[in-house]
Each structure stands twice: as C-alpha cells, then as structure tokens.
Amino acid sequence: MRVAIASGKGGTGKTFLAVNLALKAAETQTTLLMDLDVEEPNGGIFIQGDDAEIHKVTRAIPSWDPGACNLCGKCISWCKFNALIKLGEMILVMPPLCHSCYACSELCPMQALPMEQQSLGEIRHLKLGKLDFTESKLDVGLEQSSPLIERTLELADELFADKELQILDSPPGTACAMVSAVKTVDYVILISEPTPFGIFDLNLAVETVRQLGLPFSVVINRDGIGNNDIYDYLEKEGIPLLAKIPNQRKIAEMYSRGEIIYQQVPEVDEALEQILSKLRSLS
Amino acid sequence: MRIIFTSTGEGWDSKIDPRFGRTDFILVYDTEKDELEAHDNREIKEVAHGAGPKTAQKIHELKADVLITGNGPGGNAATILNKMPLKIFIRAGGMSIREAYEAYKDDALEPGAQ
Question: CATH homologous superfamily for B2-111?
C-alpha cells in the first residue's frame, strides 16, 4: 500500500513523520520511503548510508534545427506554455517553460524540433535492512519538479512494487508538485498544527485531496500550541483525527540534531503505532 | 532612435508599469518623428505561462533601441532581450513616461541586465 504524508503548509512535520514512521514500520515489514520534496529533500539527513545507488534522470526538450526549419511559426501557436518564441528568423526554446509534451516536435511539418535529453536531477537509493529509501533531487536552477517526481514514482513501480508499505514524503503546498506525488497513492495523511495558519493551509490540502477522491485523515503535530479551532474544524468537516503529537521542546532539539525521535519519546512512538495500525487495517 | 516604455496608460502622463512581461501598454517614442505610439498589451492577462517571453517577442517586433521599465525583465525574458541590440534601463516604476524620458536624457536611469 502506498501512503502520502502531505500538508498544505510547509514546516508542519512531513519529513519528521515520514522518516520516523518509515523506520518504525521497517522494524517489521518491508518499507519504502520516498522523499519527493525534490527542491529541498532532507530525509537523507536522518537516513544515512555509504553505498547509495544513483539514478540520473533526464527530460526531453526540443532543440531547434535552423537548417530544417521553414519558419512557418506553427510550433509557436501550439505551445501552451510559450516555451517557443520566434525572433525574426530564429526560433528560441525556453527550457524553463517547456513541459516536455512533445507537441511541437511531433507536429512540426519540417521535423525541425527534435527532442534532446537534458539533465533533470538524480534519485539516490539506499537500502538499510527492511527499509529502502529514495531521495530525489532536482538540478539547481530548474523550476519544474513534477517530471522528476513522476520519474521517481515510475522507478518505484519498477523496483519496489513488492514493498508492503510505501511512504511518500510529499512536497509542501497544494500545487502541481504535491498533486503529482499524492495522486498515485491509496491513502493520504495530512499533517498540520493547531494554529490559524495551520487550519488555513490544512483546509487547502483537504480540498485538494477531496478533489483527487482519496481517503485521508489528519495528524496534528505540536499539539498544545495555538488553540482548539483545528479540532473543531476536523469535527465540523467530519475528518478523522488519526493521531496527535505533543509539542515538546526536546523533540525539536533532537530533530535539529538529525536524530530519530520515536525510540526516545514514548508519545511519538504511541502516535506512530496508532497510524501504523490504521494503515494495517486498510491494507 | 526608438525608445520603448512599459506603461500603465497610453500617453506622456501615464505611469511606467513596473511589470515587464505583464505591462498593460507598450509605448514607443520615435525621437526623429517625435511621435509616441501606444500598443495595448492587456491581452497578456490571459497568458498563464511565459508572459515575459511573449512581451519580449513584441518588443523585438517593434524594433527599439532602448527599453525603459521598472522591476526589470525576468530570466526567460532577459534571455530573449539579450539577443537584441537593445539598451535596458530599470527602476523607472512610479515615474510618468515624460519623467522617465527626461531621466533617460539626463543619464539618471539605472542600466538593466545586459
């Protein structure tokens, strides 16, 4: 079964929950943890090993062949992302805007826009006992994270389909990157905190996940700060509260040192146990 | 010489539009003919992606020597503008077109990326 840990808001504890949940699950079952926050993955701070396997990932971008082009300009009108610009007798390709859809390349009557592979990023894969961990990292300067997320999920289908539990550490927010990751899962855990910001962004995530038609529940992190409004919100919306993680300074301190928390804080271990037993009941 | 301004309106008293790609109007002042012509760019509101390159393409078609704008073009637009023999001046946002032109003549504008 594949589960996404997501949140509307950044910094609510996605990686904290994903890493600790994956390590605990891997005590008893084969588990895959995928860090899909490709712009700034940090699961690797907590899960370390020396013999990582690196998969290079590329994407296809059109390149203009001036010898073949008759400057008809049709490609310009087809591109929905304005990634092609006609400048006098030149066609310019703007790689940051290209979505690798192949339309210009396939439809060009002169075959003047052959697709070429360009580096997109890399996927690091590490195996530690029952845990397989992948961390996907977008090349610096690239703007679109969805293609790398999709490639990572394809790799997971090829290599890790047999893992009993697959946990996705989703990118933050509710935009394309988050949707690319979350749309492939069986179940979504949204993590938020009991603050006005927390409710606002949780609500965006709830609306997104509902639109994707996926079953989900909510984990509240840093319980004890802010107020009770988020619990009223969950009740009013009929959203199951899966677990609560208390606000404790020592958790933040341990986390900032890159430590694994659940073996040291019983309340966290208990919350993870609740989450795992829910996931077992679903699979 | 032809000078292009990103503008919120159509005349000398309009303000410089600080946005490059999503500027409402593109004004071209031809110093030889002493004529100011306005090109409506508001259809750019409908463009979700690549507004900068699109406006840069228009500027290429208008064949100017100088561009005076506000915040300055973004990376994609700059890639295109850099292919043209065009001098760019930025941070004229808030000035009227007339003030920006005077500031240009006094050499008081900040050169942009190029």
Answer: Dinitrogenase iron-molybdenum cofactor biosynthesis domain (3.30.420.130)
A155: closest CA among A202, A189, A120?
A120
Distance from CA of A253 to the nearest CA of B (A): 40
Measured between CB atoms, does A175 come within 8 Å of chain B? no
pLDDT at res. B41: 96
Q: Which CATH superfamily is domain A2-57+121-282 in?
A: P-loop containing nucleotide triphosphate hydrolases (3.40.50.300)
Percent of chain A, pLDDT > 90?
A: 92
Instruction: Considering chain A, tell me which residue range(s) the CATH 3.30.70.20 domain(s) occupy.
Output: 64-113
- Which helix (H) or strand (E) element contains residue A59? strand A53-62
What are the chain B neighbours of A95 within 8 Å (beta carbons)?
A: none
Per the prediction, chain A carries an average pLDDT of 95
Count of helix runs (H) and strand runs (E) in chain A: 10, 11
Over residues A125-169, the pLDDT tens digits come to 999 999 999 999 999 988 889 999 999 999 999 999 999 999 999
DSSP-assigned letter for residue B84: S
Do B83 and A97 count as a contact with CB atoms less than 8 A apart? Answer: no
Tell me what pLDDT residue B113 has: 65
Chain B residue numbers touching A86 (CB-CB < 8 A): 57
Judged by a CB distance cut-off of 8 A, whether residue A56 touches chain B is: no
Q: Cβ contacts of residue B13 below 8 Å, gap of 6+? A: B96, B97, B98
Work out whether strand A84-87 and strand A90-93 pair parallel, antiparallel, or are unpaired.
antiparallel
